[in-house]
Specification:
By secondary structure, this protein is of the alpha/beta class. The strands form 5 sheets. Strands 1, 2, 10, 11, 12, 13, 14, 15, 16, 17, 18, 20, 21 and 22 form a 14-stranded mixed beta sheet that branches. A 5-stranded parallel beta sheet has the order 4-3-5-6-7, sandwiched between helices. A 3-stranded antiparallel beta sheet has the order 8-9-19. A hairpin with a 5-residue loop joins strand 21 and strand 22. Helix 2 runs antiparallel to helix 3, helix 2 crosses helix 4 and helix 5 crosses helix 6. The longest helix has 17 residues. It is globular and about 70 Å long.
Length: 550
Amino acid sequence: MYRQFLKQHAFTSLEDYNENLEFIVPDDFNFAYDVMDKWAEEWPEGKAMIWVNDEGEERTVTFAEIKEESDKAAGYFADLGISKGDMVMLILKRRYEWWISMLALCKLGAIAIPATHMLTEHDIIYRNNSADVKAIICVGEEYVLEQIQKAKPYSPSLETLVSVGPIVPKGFHDWHNEMPQAEPWERAEHNSKDDLLLIYFTSGTSGEPKMVAHTHTLPIGHLTTGVFWHNLHRGSIHLTVADTGWAKAVWGKIFGQWLAGATLFVYDHKKFAAKDMLKMIEKYRITSFCAPPTVYRFMIQEDFSQYDLSSLEHATTAGEALNASIFKRFKELTGVELKEGFGQSETTMILGTMPWIEPRPGSMGKPNAQYNIGLVRPDGTPCENHEKGELVVYTEKSHPIGLFIGYYHDEELTREAWRGGCYHTGDVAWRDDDGYYWFEGRIDDVIKSSGYRIGPFEVESALMTHPAVVECAITGVPDPIRGMVVKATVILAEGWKKKAGEELKKELQQHVKRETAPYKYPRIVEFVDELPKTISGKIRRVEIRQNDAK
């Protein structure tokens, strides 16, 4: 299916890929019609999805069934007054209805706003009023329903509420009773590829979330994610560990995967447990797996001899930087090399370890050919190799497929991010002599101590090689002499928790001195049970800094 959107669809080397990757995007491209409905026509019996939950329910859905249900849902939404250009928030966790809703809204030309079930009343009010949300489709769970009900009186644009159950309170439409009665939607008009498709509210490691606006070209931008980075094809069974409220869901749970004709495996679970994830890989013969480093950290603590993971062909990771120690241990346990990728809610994958690239543990890989990538100094001049700088996407000559078009309703923020002929990611990295990029941290996370610039990730990587450390965060603490000193906030492995104390702190400090330049060692070490994180699993170093400042 994806071949019609590329001038050349197969590549023999990275050089071939870099020189000849070129997209073909129809002016009226619509993923639901031009990809999913075409699959239903060409391969109706193909398995589009295997959905299971932690209560033992299971459902296998074909491409023909996906088309039928999305047509029905589009007709249902139209009956509820949802039309082209309307904003619709989806709070559906990993429920099957999320995929049907995404395709139905795409067919209508409405704009999806995926959101997490963890939102509070304040969060929902903020989103409703920032984006003029007209409808919310949600899981029928007490907490979610309560927050929406509290937010509704303060959300003047909000007209329609739909629950997919099990609870359907007064004031909510009942998806499962009403949707089957709707007439299937028939395409009446064509959208432009430049029309808005979805808006993501960023995780917000600091400040209020921004509204990242993407057009109908976004799915084609993720073609490289699914086909080349995940290395998918017809017959692949792919599992990405992500909640649908996070932008990683469109990286790994819908667009690029279905463009490749792969089967999506969805595990709808309430609480993550590494053992359960390993059981899923074994039972359903998963061939391709993608998860943030945090998931791999917990997985490698398990006894892999208890599971048959022989079906696993590819494993990828994104969401935060990967520690080399995790790469090495996972390869020892499975024989599979983790392929790292890097991007943001604002982009698709801009850096990655493609099939033609030998992975280097801890490196984000090399630039994805659909983006023109560089590193710049604060004055905007290019960095040399081994020099730390801000990662940027050059856009003067062309706007890359997959790059957002701006922050919705916020020209000032858009201008801040888009200046000097490039999009500024706000992330700091460096490039080695072979063109591999290495993550350092967010610009605000870089620690300046005694004249040194210290990236948190390099210290975290050193700490993670000690067997006592399961997870850690490095931040800076104000110091009257050095300006800032390095602090490590550490989660200990089970067997080490009873050893928490001054002796272990000194041991970890000495370990960092041996693993990296001694000036980077943490002068402050704190042991904790958990780290503050965003809904997408990224460590909120800003919250640690704020707590230390109190």
